[in-house]
Amino acid sequence: MQTTYHKANTRGKADHGWLKSHHSFSFASYHNPERMGFGQLRVLNDDIVKPKMGFGTHPHQNMEIISIPLSGALSHKDSMDNKRAITVGEVQVMSAGTGLQHSEFNDSKTDEVNFLQLWIQPEELGVAPRYEQKHFDLSKRENQFQTVVAPKDNTIDDALWIHQQAYISLGNFDASQTINFKLNNASHGIYVFVLEGKIEIDDQTLETKDALGIWDTKNVAMNIQKNSKILVVEVPMN
């Protein structure tokens, strides 16, 4: 098993006043040649948007974009005539494909929005743009991983699908147990991102917003040291 450790405080930072963002990988003005992504995972941004502020209309192309709210609600509007709010418990996917435009806005007058945005490189370019979001039963991630995103040709349960052999899973775990994560494909790697809590993997301790990239293994044992919420992104490494 090979690993790469990313401590929370080593992420890139941006503070635009209305937006505070932490970048796990190179993004916008943050450039680190040693952090250009993990396999086909290109972006993992941890964004906090102030009330009544947001991202104006902007374009995307040939990227699978996944948004996961951690607190608050984010309003979405795009060039495909979708206009919806995304809230905690929901996951949103967009295939930018041949091109689309969208905006994201915090409509609340009082509460910040904290959400994760992930970009995964597609296995096929020039696909028709698409948008989908859904609410997931949070009870199904108690002390187990719930797959919320999966490949188009290998969907799992009620997972949303994307144009890549990638999987995104979320789990909420009680302390003092060991969880075994089995990769869907042994040639893939996983990027483990601790949303809250404290865990240990292969003698490496991870606390809130720490991450560990792992590859060259079929299974990963996670020792849950404190009550924890965990995101796992499984992607092809080539």
TrEMBL record:
Residue span(s) of domain Quercetin 2,3-dioxygenase C-terminal cupin: 155-235
Superkingdom of origin organism: Bacteria
SUPFAM superfamilies: RmlC-like cupins
Transmembrane segments: none
Cofactor binding note of this UniProt entry: Binds 1 Fe cation per subunit.
Molecular functions per Gene Ontology: metal ion binding
CDD domains found in the cross-reference section: cupin_Yhhw_N
Family: Belongs to the pirin family.
Domain named Pirin N-terminal: residues: 10-120
Keywords of this entry: Iron, Metal-binding
Name of the protein this chain belongs to: Pirin-like protein
Residues that bind Fe cation: 58, 60, 102, 104
Span of the signal peptide: none
Cofactor(s) in the UniProt record: Fe cation
